Structure formats: structure tokens, C-alpha cells
Amino acid sequence: MTAGTLASGVLFDFSGTLLRVEPVDRWLRAVLDAHGIRTTPEEFAAHAQALTAAGALPGGPAPRAVPPALRPLWDERDRTGELHRAAYTGLARQVPLPDPRLHDALYERHMSPEAWQPYPDTAVVLRTLAGRGVPVAVVSNIGWDLRPVFRHHGLDQYVSAYVLSYEHGVQKPDARLFRAGCEALGLDPARVLMVGDDARADGGAARIGCAVHLVRHLPVTERPDGLRPVLGMTAALDLDADLT
Fold it and tell me: Where are the transmembrane segments (predicted)?
């Protein structure tokens, strides 16, 4: 996109851009309650703190340090579902919990639609883009199918395509994932805006000619309108103008 040109399609990142995963303490509490496991307040706080430090919640705080044995998995975690699960359950297993089954249960919990909350302006921005005829694709580094999350929150109707790293075997910032997103929208990258929260991963879209707009990966309550600027950066493709 050249200066002053409006995008005719948008690629959105998922986690930290359109939706945010629940906090670690709520994630842990949901799994403990589901298994009927009770802890003292002190034990619960210690478990939550240790899981946070380990970076065991996908979409949550990053690990303070990745154990050397897990580094190869971590670096490639979004290329396949198996790698993603192994990386995050491996991080979780660094934390002793009351029942060893909880490490896998925590991973399962984070994939549930209830574990995710849209940012306050997600629905209105997606709905407005759809009303303008501006197509949207979700391009995500992820190891599982996020489509049920969008359906649960009533957002799927606004998404034209999903381009998920584990389904393509490559992860952002690999240009092939962004190119697949543009192809899914039927648009040249020069007409597409990539919106994400990671300058390195999402910024890779610039290599194929997309414009890039970054938002801050903040808790839902702290970012009420971070996506709204996208509306000023987009407009439906004027096919008649292109033919003149």
C-alpha cells in the first residue's frame, strides 16, 4: 500500500489482537474445579504464580525462561498441533500440581471457547468491515482449530477465511502464511492490511507488500478501542475505478 491508499482487505492476528485468553488464575481455577480438587489459598496462589512464570498458558504471559530441553519445541511450536501441545504441556509440567492429569487438562481448557474473550471493539470493527464489503481473514500462529471460538462469540460470520499455521506447516513471520491469507481474500498484498500485536511475527507481512498496523497485547479491560483505527485504514475495493 502506498501512502494515503486504503486497504481493501484485512488480515487479523488472533490472540492478543481480536481476542484474549483468560487470566492464569481463572484458567487454573476452572480446571481445578472441573476435577473437584481443592487447594488452600496459599497453594492456589503458588501454583498460579509458577504457571505464569513457566509461560504454560498459550496466549498468556511468555515464559520467563524456556528450559533448554524444550527450546527446539518452543521455537517450532506453531508448525503442528503436536508440537504446540508438547511445548505447552512441557512448560506446564515444570510446575508440580496436585494431580498429574492437570497438565493436559490445562491445555485442553485453553482451547475451549469459554477461555477466550473478545476485545470490546472486536465485534463492531469486524461487523463494520463486513458491512463495507471489506473481507477479513484470520492469520494465526496456533496449534489448534480456533474456528469454534469465533462461532461461540458470534464472530465467525464476519470472517471470510482462516489461515492457521498448524494447517499450513509454517508460522509467522514466514511470508507464505501471509501470502496464503491474501490469496484467500483474492487480493494483491499491496491492497491488504495486516493487524497484529507482535512486531516480529505480524510485521513479516510487510515483506510481501502488506501494510502493517500493530495493537498492544493488553488485558481486555485495558484496551477498549485498540482496533478502531483499522476502520480509518480500509475501504471497499472500487472495481469500477480499476476498469477506467
Answer: none
